[in-house]
Amino acid sequence: MIRKHGSAVWDGTLKEGQGHLSSQSGVLDGVAYDFRERFEDKPGTNPEELIGAAHAACFSMALANILAEQGITAERIETRSTISLSMKADPKIVNAHIETTIKAPGDKAIILEAARAAETGCPVSQLLDCEITMDAKVA
């Protein structure tokens, strides 16, 4: 079993406080985040942005693997995952929308079928408790 971790420290109230997050690899090391970065337009990171990046990375890797199983080597997979946080009652992530452009040789239908399999099959998609949608195109 592979285990990775991230950590966060929060000081203060929700609106006036501030947190710092770090990752096991050290890529994130005490990165600041706060209420305004998450719920307003202050530049900086937030949990939804990090989930989106993780989802895009996981999907792209899963798609590359599924294509390889079909004998197709992707030249490039560009993916964005937009995480939608509903503010009705209690905040809840309600949607993850994947936009991906796949540059790969081979039958377009097979490539798009592989993308559909990765959409629900990547581990981060399986973790998310929300609707997952996708727009995929083959370049």
What is the ordering of alpha helices and beta strands? EEEHHEEHHE
Number of helices: 4
Helix content: 25-40%
CATH topology of the largest domain: GMP Synthetase, Chain A, domain 3
Given helix and strand content, the structural type is: alpha+beta
Number of domains: 2
How confident overall, as mean pLDDT? 96
Low-pLDDT segments, ≥5 res: none
What is the strand tally?
Answer: 6
User: Major sheet: order of its strands?
Assistant: 1-2-3
Second CATH tier, the architecture of the largest domain: 2-Layer Sandwich
Radius of gyration: 17 Å
Shape estimate = elongated
Any overview of this molecule?
The protein has 139 residues and is of the alpha+beta class. The protein is built from four helices and six strands. It has two domains: 6-39, no CATH class; 48-138, K homology (KH) domain (GMP Synthetase, Chain A, domain 3). The chain has helices spanning 35-39, 47-69, 108-121, 123-127, and strands spanning 6-11, 18-23, 31-34, 76-86, 92-103, 131-138. The protein is elongated and about 55 Å long.
Which descriptors would you attach to this protein?
139 residues, alpha+beta, GMP Synthetase, Chain A, domain 3, 2 domains, 3-stranded mixed sheet, 4 helices, 34% helix, elongated
